[in-house]
Input
Amino acid sequence: MILYLAKPSGTMKENPMIRRGLLLVLFAGAAFLAWLPAPATAGQQALRARVYIDGELDYLLYAPDDHVEPTARVPLVVWLHGGNEGGNDIDKVRASGLPKMIEHGRKFPFFVFSPQNPSEELLYPIERLESVLQQVLANPRIDRNRVYLIGYSRGGFGAWAMAEQFPGMFAAVVSIAGGANLQYLNRTSEKTAYRLFHGTDDDVVPLSVSALVHERLRSLKRNTTLTVYEGANHAAVESIALNDETLWNWLLQQRSDAAAP
Output
């Protein structure tokens, strides 16, 4: 900081108060300049931050009925809903997909883990989802070699993100009207089986999105199948695919070695 002060006229007597004030100002300025840090050499430091992220996640969990042997190890299906069921009202998750089928009386011979996306607008927080899923998998009744992942629409995008980031976790991945980051599909497991379902009249996520994913998986020598429903739009394809019995017959035949030592 530079202070410019008017030079006193030679004909004026020096005022002691002005002189004292001037000295105080100059002293304060010198002290301020001494406090300023010296210019540092450009560079970067390696630092570490410790942060805590909210780990809460609401979910529905369906357990097989009594017709399944209580001591038998059974599969687990992870269901990722579409965009309309996100938020903090878990009853919204019951409104579509596998939870809706269960609410209407459908019996399945496997556990169904249906987490709710805490965001109404963003994609699933998959690191948090994986952490909660590990807690669910601690159930000794669940067969770790038969863990299946199914996602619809936004949940389909979440399913591909899970398959890319946690490739050894699932024996099968099913995407219904979803899409993936093609660049990272090479991270998917070559031991996992993949099925894609899409409608020709989907004006939300075009059929071409699943077609590109399917072709990319084929180029990577993955076990992939694309099923296209003629005339089905984005809303209709979810129910059509989940009520296609060939899906369940195929799904329950898939196994992995996730639980191997």
